[in-house]
Design goal:
Number of strands: 22
Distance between the termini: 77 Å
Oligomer: single chain
Shape: elongated
Strand order of the largest sheet: 11-12-13-16-15-14
Largest sheet: 6 strands, antiparallel, barrel
Structural class: alpha+beta
């Protein structure tokens, strides 16, 4: 256990490759002479350029040359061993991203966003060397790492080693902010220089006086203890990027909306659609010329592919917006088609919808070659009902009862829902026997924010009642699940949920063969 002069002891094992200057040089395959050359001439080994940011600003990137980048990449796994990842940290951590960062704050009613000003330039070479020495690394090795990883006396944004070194520097900051958040009953996360707090209650503990109105605010309004904590760790809050959102405003975390479902900003989607409209109107060559004339560089098609990949990552490839945009892209660029192949889970989740009318609520699902299927008792006495997918519960569609058989408890609904809004399930082809695993899927007593309810179980018996073949299962089929699919292990429909729950005593689904024979006779 090593003593850390910047806080409590840190348990860390120094890799043998960093035990001495000779060891680190041997690991990197370099000599003392080359190290000294890098120390004095490293500024020449970087290429600096600016990339555009929102608001007309730019970010300076300093990219190392091939040799220095190779050395930094050799160091990176060793530095990773020195950094115990903290739970609130989502930037530059394997398996985490802006998406996981935003998900940490999903559906929180109050969100506070802060930005650490000049993040990488603030992390000086002396701070890096001092931090490494505090971890038990010798001063000569720490200095060598500083030579190899810093430029102009600070961390460069663009070097492979800068992310992990910045997280190591922020180790104490993260620990103290996490403790502060727990005291204030908030959730805390950090993605690089973006700091986010969120809560279900107004965050009075973070402000010295009354809560500011939603929008940008002066960081001086924060309690002195919080500001002292940031300054005490060598950082400054960027006054132009302090933002507070309440339950009545749009809540954003690292560029993603977290109000109810994780989503990208509408402007992002709008820009993609505008670019595709240009291609549709002007053709690929004309749209590319317009793209360049607007001050952009590179290829429009590559630009669009990157943006579509991003919204697919955030919303999922089965999302209707993603599918609609991908279809438009494929029409515009037939030689660069985006293949949209949903996972079995995505297909299932997008195939199962809610059937709602003034008397109650049930479940329905889209079946290949059939249409929208539900239980007859979910639409009793109705000619028209509303259907919607919970991911967009405000976006309802009218559906008409096309066929209904009360004895079999089956109904087919006609609709005009765009094909990009849903996927279809297949009918089970294999025989169904006692002991077969089954999943019952539906929306029992659904409320906004509830996910699809998936209940595993097995077939307890296959029986016939009133000349209707039924599947009895071990899982409870409660109110609201009626009309949903009973799925076999391949995700195919084995039956349509009929009735069940504690009041019934037994739980049944209508056998898919009943649906098949009914359709064949219709």
């Amino acid at each position: 256990m090593l003593r850390n002069p910047f806080g409590p002891p840190i348990r860390v094992a120094v890799p043998p490759e960093l035990a001495s200057e000779a060891a680190v040089l041997a690991h990197l395959g370099m000599t003392v002479k080359e190290l000294n050359k890098i120390r004095w001439y490293r500024a020449r080994m970087y290429q600096s350029f600016e990339i555009a940011k929102s608001g007309g600003k730019s970010r300076l990137i300093s990219a190392p040359d091939r040799r220095l980048k190779h050395l930094q990449r050799q160091l990176l796994p060793l530095l990773d061993q020195l950094y115990p990842v903290r739970n609130p940290v989502h930037g530059f951590v394997s398996g985490r991203s802006v998406k996981t960062n935003a998900l940490s704050h999903l559906r929180r009613r109050f969100v506070l966003n802060l930005d650490l000003k000049d993040f990488f330039p603030t992390i000086t070479e002396n701070r890096v060397v001092g931090m490494l020495e505090a971890l038990g690394i010798s001063s000569t090795v720490a200095a060598a790492i500083g030579y190899l990883c810093c430029i102009h006396g600070h961390l460069p944004q663009g070097a492979p080693t800068s992310p992990v070194l910045s997280n190591m520097i922020c180790f104490r900051l993260d620990r103290e902010l996490l403790a502060f958040a727990k005291t204030a009953r908030c959730i805390y996360t950090r993605y690089a220089d973006d700091i986010t707090f969120s809560s279900h209650q107004p965050m009075s503990a973070l402000f010295e006086g009354p809560l500011p109105p939603a929008g940008h605010f002066d960081p001086d309004l924060l309690v002195p203890a919080f500001k002292a904590l940031v300054v005490g760790n060598g950082f400054t809050i960027n006054p132009s990027k302090a933002h507070y959102a309440d339950r009545h405003s749009r809540r954003m975390v690292t560029g993603l909306k977290v109000n109810e479902l994780l989503n990208v900003d509408r402007r992002y989607i709008r820009n993609i659609r505008a670019a595709l409209h240009s291609v549709e109107m002007l053709g690929p060559i004309g749209a590319q010329a317009k793209y360049v004339a607007s001050g952009s560089t590179g290829s429009l098609v590559e630009h669009l592919l990157g943006k579509i990949a991003w919204i697919s990552h955030i919303k999922g490839s089965s999302d209707p917006v993603v599918r609609g945009i991908a279809l438009r892209f494929n029409t515009c660029f037939a030689d660069r088609k985006i293949m949209i192949t949903p996972t079995p889970t995505e297909r299932r989740d997008r195939a199962v919808w809610i059937v709602e009318h003034d008397d109650g609520q049930g479940t329905g699902f889209f079946l290949s070659g059939v249409g929208l299927v539900t239980a007859a008792h979910c639409v009793t006495g109705k000619k028209e009902v509303e259907v919607f997918h919970p991911s967009k519960h405000a976006n309802t569609f009218k559906a008409t009862v096309l066929k209904r058989d009360d004895h079999r408890d089956l109904a087919i609904l006609s609709h005009e829902i765009p094909a990009t809004e849903y996927y279809e399930l297949d009918r089970a082809a294999s025989p169904i026997a006692t002991g077969d695993p089954m999943k019952a899927v539906g929306y029992p007593k659904w409320a906004p924010g509830d996910p699809l309810n998936v209940r595993p179980g097995v077939v307890s018996t296959v029986t016939v009642k009133s000349a209707v073949r039924l599947i009895e299962v071990t899982q409870k089929l409660t109110q609201g699940m009626s009309g949903g699919p009973l799925l076999d292990t391949s995700g195919a429909v084995a039956g349509v949920i009929h009735k069940g729950g504690p009041e019934e005593g037994r739980d049944f689904a209508i056998h898919v063969d009943v649906l098949n024979s009914w359709l064949a006779a219709s």
